[in-house]
Each structure stands twice: as C-alpha cells, then as structure tokens.
Amino acid sequence: MKGVSQGLIIGISIGVIIGVLLAISALFCIRYRRKHSQIGNSSSRRASTIPIRTNGFDSVTILSDSTTGQESPKTVDGKNGMAIWLEGAKRKSVVSGIPKYPYKELQKATHNFTTVIGQGAFGPVYRAQMSTGETVAVKVLATDSRQGEKEFQTEVLLLGRLHHRNLVNLVGYCAERGQHMLIYVYMSNGSLASHLYSEKHETLSWELRVQTALDVARGLEYLHDGAVPPVVHRDIKSSNILLDRAMKARVADFGLSREEMVDQHASNVRGTFGYLDPEYISTRAFTKKSDVYSFGVLLFELVAGRNPQQGLMEYVELAAMNAGGRAGWEEIVDSRLDGKFDVKELNDVAALAYKCINRVPKKRPSMRDIVQALLRIVKLRYSRKSHKRVLSATDEEVVIDVDQQSENQLPISRLRREESIDGNKDTPEV
C-alpha cells in the first residue's frame, strides 16, 4: 500500500513538472510571435514614410503617409534619411497615392532626355510622350542639387494628397539609378511669365489677366483653407503659374511649401526676390499672410506687365502716392493693353492688390476674401455687358418701330391726298 502511494506521488510530481514546462514553452512562443509582429509593423511603417529635410544639414523630418494626424514629426540622422526614402520607394510602387514610374519608361518617353521645355532651380523639365499616348512634363532633379532633393520629397509628400483644378497635378515620380524625377500634367501654354514678357506670345487681354488672378486665388484658397493641415506655398510668382490648353491658370512648384504643423520658423530666407513679404524677411516666420503678400505682387504684375525683380514695387508705391490706394492706378497699367480695359475694374483690382501688400500682415485680406472680391469684379463686368446688350437691343427695337411707323404713315398721307383728288373729280363742275 505504501509503495502504491509513493508511485502516485511521483506520478503527480512528474505531471506537474511537465505541465509547468509546457506552460513556459507556450509563454515563450507567444512572446516571440508578438515581437516578430511588432518588428514587421515597424518596418512597414518605415517603408511608407517620406522624409522632408529641415534646414539643419544633419536632420530629416519624417511624416507618415497620413499627414492629418497630430503626432509630432520624428527626426532621424540625415545620412540615413534618403536611404529610408529610397527603401520605401523600392518596396512600394505607390507613395502617398502617387504612382512610381520606371527610369527606362521615362527615358524612352523623353527620347533619352532630349525634349527640354524649361529649366528651373530644381533642374531641367522635359516633354514626354508616354506609351498610353498621354503627354506629361518630367522635372528632373539636378544631381548636384541638395536643396532640390528636399524639394523633390516635399512635392511628392504634399501633392499626393492635394487635388484641385487650380493646382498642377502630380501624376507620378521616379526614384531610380540615383535620379529623382517628378511627373506632372502637361500645361501646353507654358508659364504666365512667358506670356507677360516673351514676344513669342500675344499680349494677354485684361479680361484674361483678371481670370488668371481668380484662378490663382482659388488655388491658394484651397491650400490655406481646404487642405488639412493647411499649406503655405512660399514661392508664388508668375513663373510658377502655368496655363493649360484653355488658358486656365494653375499653381505649380511646391518645392518650398510647408504645412503649418511643420517648422514655421526657418533660419534661412527662402523664396524669390521681389515677391518676398518684408515681415517674413525680418522675422523669418512665413505664414498664410506671406502668401497673400506675394499674391498682391502678382496682381500688380498682371496690372503693370512689369517684373517685380525690376523695380515693380517702387513703381507701385509712387503711383499709390497719387492714387491714394483706391483710384488713379491707370498710370501704371501695361501699355501693351492699348487702353482696352475698364477703368473702374482696373482700379478695383489694383486697390485689392494694394491691400494684399500692406506692411501689417493682420491688415491683409485672407485668400477667401480675395476670391470673393475678384468674383464680384468679374460678376459686375458680366452684369455691365448684359445691361449693355439689353440697352442695345432696346434701342434697336425702338429704331425698328420708328421706321415701321414712318413707313406706315407715308401711304396714309398719300391715300388721303389721293382721296382728296378723287373727291375733286367726283365733284360736279359749276
């Protein structure tokens, strides 16, 4: 009996030991799987991020594909930032909703990069005929451009989620063979600057200039009030406004753009001389109102047909002393318009532009207010034209009625004379 009880105790002990070992093994397995899953998730997140370099040479700010979150940007070493970007581009054929194109396809579409249509700070721009038959513009980053590399990443990140009829749409990118290319919708009528200053183009009519201003204002209104988070462009100028086949204007070149959640303060002044907000130059803080200032300069450029880098604003300030900021802006109007503009409309546009360049940013209108002001100007123009057509049609009807009445009166007088003559014939002679 004693032997049986000892055997039972030994059996139970062995069972307990085996159970404990199995439990420990199961616990290790669970921990291993969780750790493996976390590593996989973190690597996939790294692959889907796009770095944006800050002004510091050794740091890169990384934002995830979804830029609407409230998480703070993470900073990594600048030397590895581009490697992360390229790794993500290789693993995924689409970044931020933008398709990735192979280098060979773009090489063939541009005839080995010989179809140059422009040259900018970023690098050369080529016209490309894709295999689908679509014509696009390919902007290639210059290989020695450090700043261009940052602008490349910024544009892909931003334009992957910004879509508006008055923004130039990014349709693809290429990050291969050490090359970085951005692929845009082709804008067949080139830049606004080329139409204002090149003799190859006919002079833009006043009506088209106002419509261009409205198109640009709508694009900027979307960036400031429609995008989440809001975006400031930072480089509004006539060479960054492109015209499509129907002469509709679109805002281009987002290389310097910043989201409001990303580093408003920069150590270096960036932008184009002549369009820069004086407040930005003194404080290094670029805001929506800085874009408004640049837009005001663009408005005066449309009015005067004069380059801001060649003394436009000095010209404007002299005119403002006489105009008082509201009327009398005719003296700065582009002579190529040959007087073909409405004086009141001109003064309204110039007065709006003068508000945009106010030295005090808080006194400048918002882009939404600017859009509404330009819409009123355009609607008043069409209202005046409609009124003139109605008056013209009324005058025409009056002339027709008078003519018809005159024609009807003549036979009556003749008839009366004839009746009188006939009556005399019937009267018996005495």
Describe the overall structure:
This protein has helices at residues 2-47, 78-91, 103-109, 146-159, 192-197, 206-226, 278-283, 288-304, 312-323, 343-356, 367-426; strands at residues 50-53, 59-63, 74-77, 94-95, 98-99, 116-119, 124-129, 135-140, 170-176, 179-185, 231-232, 241-243, 249-251, 258-259. With 430 residues, the chain is an alpha+beta fold. It has two domains: 46-186, Phosphorylase Kinase, domain 1; 187-392, Orthogonal Bundle (Transferase(Phosphotransferase), domain 1). A five-stranded antiparallel sheet has the order 6-7-8-10-9, with helices on both faces. Strands 1-2-3 form a three-stranded antiparallel sheet. Strands 4-5 form a two-stranded antiparallel sheet. It is elongated. The N and C termini lie far apart (181 Å). Residues 39-92, 412-421 and 423-430 have low confidence and may be disordered.
Q: How many angstroms separate the termini?
A: 181 Å
- What is the H/E order? HEEEHEEHEEEHEEHHEEEEHHHHH
Give the biggest sheet: 5 strands, antiparallel
State the name of the first-level CATH class of the largest domain: Mainly Alpha
CATH architecture of the largest domain: Orthogonal Bundle
